[in-house]
Amino acid sequence: MDNGAACYRRFLDGDDEGIVEIIRDYKDGLMMYLNSITGNFSTAEEIMEYTFFKLVTKKPKFNGKSLFKTWLYAIGRNAATDSLRKRTKYADDPIEEMDFVKDEEDIERNFLKEEQKKHLYQAMKQLNPDYRQALCLTFFENFSNEETAKIMKKTRRQIENILYRAKRSLKSELEKEGFEYERL
């Protein structure tokens, strides 16, 4: 059973702790996915908050035909699409990620990881929006191709083709920078 579905049912039955657990479990991944659509962390955060606000206020029906996470991400995608459609202008430059240093021994390792993330992030910015979304959902959020297809409103075969082209494009972008990403 999908834990998110159980939490949502608890919330609908009056247990507010259910929505708290949903937000805690899904907020980071949802925001990263929404960032792949918007290309802006601030906008992605606003849409993520709106998605959870919508769950709390409108209490849409979850029919259980998919995983709760798939359903939630589809709601977020629709909110992002609506938001982008309504905006006449939005900032194309995302906010740079901040470096977090836990202790002195990890400085070099953290620096290298951040550099790799920046290369990957910059390369992904150059990709077609469908490519970014598909890569984010399958590789970073571990959705199956079928779940990704539901979220993106495409067929499984279309997602397989998009992923094939996306990986090739991402690899090409990374190679331009002299960087190779190990999962490609």
Secondary structure topology:
Blueprint: H1 3-12, H2 17-38, H3 41-58, H4 68-86, H5 107-125, H6 129-140, H7 145-152, H8 156-176
In short:
The protein has helices spanning 3-12, 17-38, 41-58, 68-86, 107-125, 129-140, 145-152, 156-176.
Question: In words, what does this structure look like?
Answer:
The chain is mostly helical and 184 residues long. It has two domains: 3-86, RNA polymerase sigma factor, region 2, helix turn helix motif (Rna Polymerase Sigma Factor, Chain: A, Orthogonal Bundle); 104-176, Winged helix-like DNA-binding domain superfamily/Winged helix DNA-binding domain (Arc Repressor Mutant, subunit A). The protein is built from eight helices and no strands. The protein has helices at 3-12, 17-38, 41-58, 68-86, 107-125, 129-140, 145-152, 156-176. Helix 3 (41-58) packs across helix 4, helix 4 (68-86) packs parallel to helix 7 (145-152) and helix 7 (145-152) crosses helix 8. The chain is globular. The two termini are 31 Å apart. Residues 88-105 have low confidence and may be disordered.
**So what's the overall shape?**
globular
Count every beta strand, where a strand is a DSSP E run of 2 or more residues.
Answer: 0
What is the count of DSSP helices, taking H or I runs of 4+ residues? 8
Low-pLDDT residue spans:
88-105
In CATH, the homologous superfamily of the largest domain goes by the name RNA polymerase sigma factor, region 2, helix turn helix motif
Under CATH, the topology of the largest domain can be stated as: Rna Polymerase Sigma Factor, Chain: A
- C-alpha termini separation: 31 Å
Quaternary organization? single chain
Write down the secondary-structure element order.
HHHHHHHH
Q: What is the C-level CATH assignment of the largest domain?
A: Mainly Alpha
Structural class: mainly alpha
Largest sheet: none
Overall pLDDT confidence: 82
CATH architecture of the largest domain: Orthogonal Bundle
User: Percent of residues in beta strands?
Assistant: under 5%
Radius of gyration: 18 Å
Number of individual domains: 2
Helix content: over 70%
